[in-house]
Specification:
Keywords: Membrane, Transmembrane, Transmembrane helix. With 433 residues, the chain is an alpha+beta fold. The chain has twelve helices and 22 strands. The strands form six sheets. Strands 19-18-15-20-21-22 form a six-stranded mixed sheet, with helices on both faces. The N and C termini lie far apart (70 Å).
Length: 433
Amino acid sequence: MRPTIVLVVLLVVWGLGGVAASLWPAAVLPWNTFGTALLLLSILDLVLLLRRPTPDVVRTMAEAWPIGIARPVSLQIEGGAQVQHLEVFDLHPPGWRVEGLPRRLRLTPDTVSRVDYTLQPDMRGAAVFEGVQLRLRSPLALWRQRREAGTRHQVRVFPNFAPLTRFALLSADRASRLVGAHIKRRRGEGTDFHQMREYRVGDSLRQIDWKASSRARKLISREYQDEKNQQLVVVLDTGRRMLAQDGALSHFDHALDAALVVSYLALRQGDAVGLFATGGESRWMAPQRGMGAVDTLLRVSHDLQPQPVATDYLAAATELSLRQRRRGLLMLVTNLRDEDIEDVLSAVRMLQKRHLVIVASLRERALDEVLSAEVRDHDDAIRAGATARYLAQRKAAHDALRNHRIAVLDVTGEELPSALVERYLAVKRDGLL
């Protein structure tokens, strides 16, 4: 319970007036009467405020939120039997970016007012909305009271699944282009028989089915498609390397978003998708087929967080070899340093005995910005030189892996989804599995 600025001003005026009235005896009685009336009015106003019922509040919002994406929240506030003036504050999770609150309202009797605002979560995992805080104003505007209404809600913040909703109505090829992947097509080639059709200019002689052609008395070609029911496992580093912040998201959040995109497109192609998180916190999701695997992937990964520990790549490769027996495409997403190369090389060589392995090494966008910035003074020159040296060491580490015929993607977080999709489609197109 707090007095408003109106009551504070009246009390100050009464106090100053009392000092002046003491110098003029004839004004003492009227001024004391004014003070008594002010006291009685403030008490009456306080009683009326305390007797007012708390308005009913209903919060409407999604139960699942994508990280970094603003989503709407709606508050429906029901008015009582009297006109009320109040301020609305929703007790959303701390740290989330909010637009549209706080809000001042005038509630009229027997009506429902609606407050719409947006929130943007900044961390994955479980999050709690407490009640809605209302600051009620007394009828004479002398007092304010803070009350809590509504119910407690718990929501889950997932990796950014917003792109998947755009992909749902698109073909796999169009969805791949939407994320920026460059698709190279080779018509009529593949490993699985798809259909028979008339010969087209450009078809190879190997595609012609001579028996069918003789029966139809025209050239008939066999059309093949990429093999289905193959397996893709995304291997995510949850160690200290992925704590690096790049823009609004960490490297790990960028990796999770990219894992969702490539997994969704692989499922659309008829393949099975799995997840292996290692380094800090560990998770395993065995490869699954069907679009329902996206929900499983979201549930398994939504609360994963990188930890400030060193990743043991060799131990991870040993565990993954025991879990994933069938040959598949393994996409390791990490942030390589030159001191990691020996461990990573040993781990990948172990996995290559059975699997096809691709290493995606995330690069901080700030490094590119430093090199592209204009050098104006001595500090800028030192910064640019140190950055160039670091990138040269990084390139040498990647080249060491490439010398052992290990595919390495050196990309930023924004480039990662398209790079993974493009490499996945290339592996399918070339029949490398």
